[in-house]
């Protein structure tokens, strides 16, 4: 077979991999059906969201792209994890293959050539890596490593390949506009495809403008289509959260927590957290007492100027004096779930969110933040905050930054001792979690709702 380090050889391998994928579909008597794939968009999107989180983790210099050095480092870490499995037979990471993959996936025009891969280009790279690894089970690629231990990822990438083969019926490595029109004519449910594949969408496919759409171009556009509803539904509140400079660091912190769980072979188990509610409640009572003590005007809210004093009371060592004021304000804005604004202050539950946000940021950065500095000197506080993070990751099992009602239901249903959890996590509880009614629950929303659950008995009494 051709050399992967050359452009022609790389293309030849991709086409050969597509032919193998088509052969497998034929052997199973399955037709590549794009309309069926449309119905699977939510599942594919959840995997793409995870890839976005991985991209953020790999982007160590924070410039929005991944270069060769960052990618090889990430691949090497994955490969080392895979070596622990006796069934792993993959060859070591080959920089020449990584370099060629990067160059083939750089579809967006950037100010500097070879600057690296954007998020959508990274998804393209993962898809290409997946089919190359399917073709050669010895080859180490980013997408192949992920697929080797993740069934959801494998299904999503298989759907991407099937979607492409819906148009390139001969697996020749490209398709044209005529072939797209042919699909619409032949499909009994072609209306669904036509609603998606408008003229504007087709124009998105032909990135090179040569009238032919290859696999890389298709995946690039497909990643936009799968997440199209996100762009349409983002409201002012979600946009404001996304603009907060701490969001990216929060995502990295969740990814780190998930990695630590995996290394320690600890499964996120909400039922186990339920047993620890009394100890968490004890820490929440301390936080509530501090909130009340520093609520000087007794209006039930802590103002921004009062937060450092309140946290110093918890820490007992005055180490909050040199805290970055801008960071404190950004933490405040994340914790202000009622969107009352800085002048109004944080209520008790929002103050608990503030402490949890500070804790997880401190864990990721390994340095002081409000809510994090206490964790080194107070084992009880640290254990409670770790329980909160573990409870959240029960539902956001990929650490992508949010979870849905379906993911929460699936997590509860699959729990080995899920009866206690199921009695707590009712539809009414979901409404308590989804504070902004977007259908997605992020870390701050979860902590807010979780604080209600832990202290539910207080309210009843």
Automatic annotation (TrEMBL):
The keyword Aminoacyl-tRNA synthetase does not apply. It holds the Pfam family EF-hand_5. InterPro entries: CML21-like, EF-hand-dom_pair, EF_Hand_1_Ca_BS, EF_hand_dom. The keyword Calcium applies. Residues 46-81, 199-228, 282-317, 430-456 form the EF-hand domain. Keywords: Calcium. SUPFAM superfamilies: EF-hand. This is EF-hand domain-containing protein. It comes from Cyclotella atomus. The lineage of its organism: Eukaryota, Sar, Stramenopiles, Ochrophyta, Bacillariophyta.
